[in-house]
What we know:
Helix content is 25%, strand content 41%. By secondary structure, it is α+β, with helices and mostly antiparallel strands.
Amino acid sequence: MQFQVHTLSRIAASVLLAGAAAHASAAEAVVLDTYPAGQDPFGWPSQVFADGGDRQDIAVPFTLTSATSIESILTSLDGVGGVTLGILASQGSVPVGGAWLYSTHLSDPVMNTPLSPTGWSLGAGTYCLAAVADNGFAGQWQSGTEDYSGDWAQADANGWTAVTSTFIGMPAARITVSAAVPEPSTCALMLAGGLLAAAAARRKSNARQQG
């Protein structure tokens, strides 16, 4: 009986640790990364500006497979003046709807400066990280590399259009998210570990009483 109790305890501990590890690995993930590995962006710079009736804004698409909260944002956006950086709903690589889901206003942004937004929670779906210039802003959002890595979008006074050129990479951006709730499989694993632990404790208690 003592051998069975110890074995059950070890199994319960293993299942709980596996569940905790699965939750930890799912708790933080990079969902968008167009930076070159171990390097600063070196691709073509795309202008972000607004000057009277002439403008250019930039958006980079990303996909979420489950509900999450954005923990950090890193971009190569750089310029002088005011610009809004935020999240828009998208269809494919192009923003739709026009209304910000979340946004923050930046003054004289410097490339590779991390942002840590608070309360930016999103459901599963497709989105764009977009930079929209204030009138008078002059800057650029540099591509991570010169290699094509997917379509993105730019906007002028007439609205958003997809950038499908294979001669330019996506503007450099990195988004890290955290899971709002554990995945169902993780919850099930941790519940199973808890039940096994309870069973092991019950058996140990019974063994002591019988001894």
